[in-house]
Amino acid sequence: MNSELCSNAVAWAMRSRDLSNPNPRVGCILVTLDSDILGQGHTQAAGGPHAEIMALRDAAARGNSVVGATAYVTLEPCSHHGRTGPCCDALIAAGIKKVVVSIEDPNPLVSGQGIARLRAAGIEVEVGPGAAESRELNIGFFSRMIRKTPWVRMKIAASLDGTTALANGQSQWITAEPARADGHAWRAHACAVLTGIGTVVQDNPRLDVRLVETPRQPHLVVVDSHLDTPLDAHLFIAGRALFIYAAGPNDSKKAALEARGATVIHLPDANGKVDLAAMMKDLARREINELHVEAGSKLNGSLIRAGLVDEFLIYLAPKMIGQGFGMASLGPLTELSQAVALEFRSTAMIGPDVRIVARVKGCDQF
What is the pLDDT of residue 167? Predict the structure, then answer.
């Protein structure tokens, strides 16, 4: 096992980050016994070739034979017919001698079967190098396969004293242009962006990716209990799926929204609001790996109280604003032990603003 080659394979997998959803982000490198590169590649858009196929094609384009070669793959080669054929069969047919797999695929349709098929064909398989990096890169895919819910990341832009909007609702712009562009990059990583009807009515946002280049637009999810989404809202963008979750029936408005291209799903809870936990499970069934939340303090608070948020992406501007809307309407606590415990994952300067990535303690232990 060559640690540098494992790192290179992960770097190739990173190239799939904004491209391969809902498929996992995978990289593959084919090398000789002397670790010379024969071919390399990463997973393409859904329905396109996986990393192993791209690496085999790259080797062929270079005129390199891969018979007897070693493949470094960041996720177990698939063994089933999905949108494409089994990658393990392609590696076997190509004459690969050894496969170094970072981590087993959590998909029940694969889950060890790809490795078993490779070994049954006489190929040596090593599992483990680069496992942590591959899992982290695919945290949403692992969440969907194991927990049956997306990985939920909540983005918040606020002043240093935690205000996200003035009392009159004005919020554009608290942070500077670099932070807004960085936020768009995080949108691009996600399968879908979620917001609430309050934000739709107040700001009429597009919630698409505009400030950075992206090969695809994430889907959009709106929590709208009474189907108040305006038919002329900026949310309706051709080529992007729009899911609207409602609590009460409104057949005429549902028909009008669906005529505009939205999918309306009724998921009421006992209080006449959208059942947020059921919504997360439904989104997983719709192949949403990472869900990027950009909502107001009320919906933010509801999601946090329900234990549905895994990670926070917070941009703090060097400003003191005072009274206004906070990050989340959580309500008063009676004990400090009731606080949501977080772990800081990273901090960075993004232009004049600070970006903090914090994760709910223990939420990634699945």
Answer: 84
pLDDT at 283: 98
pLDDT at 122 over 70: yes
Annotated active-site residue in 52, 133, 290, 294 = 52
Residue range 283-316, pLDDT digits in tens: 999 999 999 999 999 999 999 999 999 999 999 9
Question: Quick one: DSSP state of residue 60?
Answer: H
> Would you give the DSSP letter of residue 74?
S
CA–CA gap between residue 6 and residue 327 (Å, rounded) = 40
Strands of the chain (E only): list them.
Answer: 27-31, 37-42, 70-73, 98-101, 124-127, 151-159, 165-166, 192-196, 219-223, 242-246, 262-266, 290-293, 311-317, 324-325, 342-350, 353-360
142: left (phi over 0), alpha (psi -120 to 50) or beta: alpha
**Above pLDDT 70, what percent of the chain?**
99
State the pTM of this model.
0.94
- Distance CA(7)–CA(130), nearest Å, equals 7
What are the structure tokens assigned to 73, written together? Answer: 């793959």
Predicted confidence band at 330 (pLDDT cuts at 50, 70, 90)?
A: confident
Kindly tell me the burial class for residue 333, based on how many C-beta atoms sit within 10 Å of its own C-beta (0-12, 13-18, 19 or more): exposed
Instruction: Identify whether 52 is a catalytic site residue.
Output: yes
Q: Tokens at residue 327, please?
A: 């990050």
